[in-house]
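Posting for a labmate who doesn't have an account.
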Amino acid sequence: MITNGFTYIAVLVFLAACLIGAQKVTKSKFFDFVPPIVLLYLIAMLCCTFGVWNTGETKAAYDAVRNPILYAMIFLMLLRCDIRQIMKLGPKMLGGFFCASITIAVAFIVTYAAMAPMLGETAWRGLGSLCGSWMGGSGNLVAVSDMLGATEVELAGASIVDSIDYSVWVMFLLWAINLAPKFNKWVKADTTKLDEVSRRLDAEFAESKKKVIDFPSLMFLLGLGLVASALCTNLGTAIRNAMPELLQIFDVATYRIVLISVLGLVLAMTPIGKIAGSAELSNIMLYMVVALIASRASLMELFEAGMGWWIIAGFIILGIHGVLMLLAAKIFKLDMFTCGVASLANIGGTASAPILAASYSGSLVSVGVLMALLGYVVGTFGGWGVGLAMSLFAR
């Protein structure tokens, strides 16, 4: 049994490295269905379940590392999100994205209101975290869980539901591509504007891919991310303590994440946002945080929490979202591409939205990327707000 804190963290990081390396070396299609980050969750939870490390002895190391790495990850993740570039998508595609976000929010609230007795009194915290992921990505999931005070077990459960239900949704949207001509005719959609936006963004996207990741860039971004994390941690605590009693109902993590998010979005519009390497560093930190969280969650506790109901709830949420998106498409004459990529930009993020976009046309990849980046911006606060709304139905 591992009792040393450093050894515990080293093993988790090495486990993540082995899984990512296995995907690259083997190029197995297995990883298309079960991504390394999902396997990392499962293996780390199995290790916790079978007592590979002592959760009491390693708690100090967990507490010392988790939040600083989380806040640095959020900062680096948002450095990629230049709002000025995202606005170039145009009103129709931005409208489609926000239609997807709103319908997801409604679906979560309705589902939890109906299923609260089966899901549990505090399940809204885990579902709120899941909503953060389904509006942005895995980074948003972890950030929202911190703001809502979700336990490691609730967060690990939300992540498993995210993986299972999301995979089915991706397969459905890829299958639905064949229906695009009939769908566009049914909603009377005009794709002329989409083609114009795609051509305009394509050159800019190709230029951005030429950026070279070098040692000075990585070192600067790593240092900046850690310093930003430290400053916002201390400043967030001070601001929360200085707030009137009414505003102290929000956890200190809320103030810290708001600060780090605003700082990341502001610097994304400066030359710092153009430095290559922020995506790679934020992904490294994401895997570290995910491994740490999963390492405190026992599978036995997940089974006791009624995970089957959570998976069912996830499919109900996706079903409601799909029906509402159909109505929105008919009302606003949104084409199949806009609806599908907007949905997957929310639910799948940068990992899958560009893939779906490329399935329509290679020239549309940049549209998928920008939509997914917008998800990073709205995911944290969207999931937090939905979580608070769901808490009103807790029983």
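Reply:
Got it, the structure tokens are right above this. The chain has a mean pLDDT of 87.
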